[in-house]
Amino acid sequence: MSNTVPDPETQLAMIGEISAAFSAEGIEHWLFGGWGLDFLAGKITRPHDDIDFFIWDGDFDKALTVLSPLGYEFRPEASAEFINESGFVRKDGYYVELARLVRTPDGSIATPGRYLDWPWPTRSFEGPPLSFRGITVPGWDAYGHWHIKMGFSRHGSKDPLREQDISDIEILKSLTGDLSGLPEFN
Fold this sequence. Notes:
Shape: globular
Order of helices and strands: HEHEHEEEEEEHH
Radius of gyration: 16 Å
Pfam families: Aminoglyc_resit
Largest sheet: 6 strands, mixed
CATH architecture: 2-Layer Sandwich
Oligomer: single chain
CATH class: Alpha Beta
Number of helices: 5
Distance between the termini: 30 Å
Protein name: Lincosamide nucleotidyltransferase A/C/D/E
Structural class: alpha+beta
InterPro entries: Aminoglyc_AdlTrfase, NT_sf
């Protein structure tokens, strides 16, 4: 997604900047995806094209307002087809995904749109903050990352797992043991 060669130090600084800005304004957020996995693993596992945060759908416009003075520009064309699911901001050539969350009528947490019938594990939003290289942010736990990796090819894109997904699963196994046998991952 990024048209810039990923610089992990710049991206780490952006993670800290965004999290601090959201926290100051009361915007709940959770780091997930590649950088979320890196924070869990305590190391940079691969280059990342973007940074992923979950936020509540009702905070989306406020998040854009908070990020704008920091130099983040809303890029609706980056997710135009699925803008009700997530939106992207860009700063200095780096993209940040703001994935939207809603509560369903039964109290589950899900992403609106195509994924509304695939709830996220509530426990993954309740864990302790993640810390890496002096940056501490609210983040998704390993169980939630398993949920995405094992289910996205069935609930999301329907594409087979990518090489990076297979690699991420191996990292998750090293952190948690093999969870793929749990009923929710089959």
